[in-house]
Amino acid sequence: MEHERHYATGKSKNAIARVWLRPGSGACLVNDRSLDSYFGRQTSRMVIMQPFELTQTAGRFDIIVNVRGGGLSGQAGAIKHGISKALLNVDPVYRSVLKSAGFLTRDSRVKERKKYGKRGARASFQFSKR
After folding, report:
1. What CATH number has the domain bearing residue 51?
2. Contact 58, 50 (CB under 8 A)
């Protein structure tokens, strides 16, 4: 029980986060950097900590995260998703709370592909009648 680690993969938009939770004091490492140095925005840091506040487990786990792809907002969402899934491994009782808050749902929005004959995914070239 001493070296118990809980792993989960979180995804959001184009970002993928591999999350490990282990019992500790609440330290958070994202890509070998502290949470504050990796995410400059306060809102991103708040989003990441939401699952802990919801389940009253703030400060009980150390978080180690590897995240890649997407932008900072998507990465924060992916980490939140991963933490929520890892908390289910810790205690399945949290499922109803996390599910009702929508933290177990993957944000599936990804960039739409460019279509041929178009300038972008939907944007067309300028039309000239004459």
Report:
1. 3.30.230.10
2. no
Which residue bears the tokens 């460019």? Answer: 114
Q: How many CA atoms lie within 13 Å of 17's alpha carbon, on the beta-carbon side?
A: 33
Structure tokens at 120: 């972008």
Where in the sequence is the domain holding 44, given as residue range(s)?
6-101
pLDDT tens track for 89-123:
999 999 999 999 999 999 999 999 999 999 999 99
For residue 117, being part of any structural domain is answered with no
Burial profile 25-47: b = 16 or more Cβ within 10 angstroms, e = fewer: eeebebeeeebeebbeeeebeeb
Return the half-sphere exposure (C-beta side, CA atoms, 13 A cut-off) of residue 99.
Answer: 6
Global pTM value: 0.90
